[in-house]
Amino acid sequence: MKIYLLLSILLMVCIIPVAAAEETGGDGPCLSCHGKDTPLIVQAWSESAHAKNDIACKDCHSGEYDIGHMTGQDRAVVEASVCARCHADVAKRHFSGKHGIGFSAGRACTRTMDRTPELLAGCNDCHEKGSTLVRQEVECARFLAQSPEMQRQGCLSCHKVETRCDVCHSSHSTDLAIVRDPAVCATCHMGPDHPQYEMWMTSRHGILFNLKGRSLAPDCMTCHMPEGDHNVSTGITMGLAGQEYPEAVREEQRGKMLTACSPCHTKSFSLRNLEDADAVQRQAKAIVDEAASIIRGLEKDGLIKPSPAERPAHPLSGKKLEIGSQMLYENLSGVEAVFFRMKKFYYVITYKGVFHQNPDYAHWYGNAPLKLALSEIKSEAALLREVKSLKERVDNLSVFGRTGTDSDKQSQADTLRTNLGHLRELYLRGDLSEDDYTKRKNDLLDRHGL
Prior knowledge:
The protein is mainly α. The protein has helices at 2-24, 29-37, 39-46, 49-52, 57-61, 66-70, 80-83, 88-95, 117-121, 141-144, 148-159, 176-179, 183-186, 196-201, 204-212, 220-224, 247-261, 267-300, 334-355, 359-400, 412-429, 434-447.
């Protein structure tokens, strides 16, 4: 009997640590499978600060997904709100910056608004119920126009930065050397729409950084995350597409950027370069606005083909022309396609090239193609109007016959019809201004008592 009692006690001593390990996620079911199936995940976690501080799998992934997880369903997503339980100050700074509206760029962000009952009642418009996780159906037209696969791979992989810390940080490692490498920023901040990484990398700053490191030259964090501040809006004085901030905000953020520049540059030198960038942005925006005005004029005159009414409905604007922030790149006319590249690529590159101290990007990748695109739009608009005029002249001649063939045998109505056609031909040919055409047409109608 004593032997059985002793064996029972020994068995309990052996079982309790295993149960405890399973409860915390230590060497329990997580590691028993992932140690074999995904060993590098286990290695990254075991070498992390989380492991050293007894932060186990279930502490972040929760313990409520075991059954579904074992049957092949999706893993429990670790949102930024989970990280915020331990990293509250960092999370607060993250949510107050541009990364904190990564999903919400397509509609107004409400974080700075008073928390009224009406506002809180609308949280589920963007967020999953009871969660900070933003729904995929966020109102961004370019997102909504894509396939689910492209939404996941081409949109959310970057824009989930609002709710996912592992967009920048690695999922299981806490090695800060990884996230402090500027190449991490390049994953999203590169390419034709905003090549900040390429601009910085090939600027004097980037070259010196790669040769001498952060001690002699700035990288992304130096200017936009000083001392590890997770509000990446630090020092930025305008919106995502150059929208003006209130003057007080501009002055505050400009002061922060001047502080970032001060270890290497005098205030006057830095200020002059930043103000040059401000001026270039305004100049570039004026070019975009001129092009937009031309396109609206073409649409008003029925010269956009396919017209908004003839193409698939816009996800948000329906059958209306959309050339603003929600402009698509699908089903456009030729002139709209030029405008999309102009406003989405060349305009942004022009002024951000100056802000990132890269003259070639500012000039030859931005300013030059921006102005060439305006010339192309103007030329295309003139051609479309000329074709329309020629078509109207042909139609006019087909209805009224050859002009200048008045005859005494024609009835009064035929004479009037011929004279009106002749006047319109002169107008369409450019021999009469619109005012002269209107005056002479009215005079002719008056003589006939009409």
